[in-house]
Amino acid sequence: MSSDSKEKIVMNQNKMLGVVLLVIGAIALYFGFNATNAPMEEVTEAFTGKYSDQTMLYLIGGAVAGVAGLVMLFRK
Prior knowledge:
This protein is about 85% helix and about 0% strand. By secondary structure, the protein is mostly helical.
């Protein structure tokens, strides 16, 4: 295997991982945004002024995974 073909394989694996991270991030954000509208979450936010830890985990984790996926996807 030449060094050029090894480089293409590694690049394809990075792009594939970027797509996977992007999809996982989008799914986590979807669940996070849905959780913010849940009745119990709205009651909790009304009293404490913040979302639950699990909802924040979905929102922050989804955003981080999405950004990481985009960086890996568009990186040379």
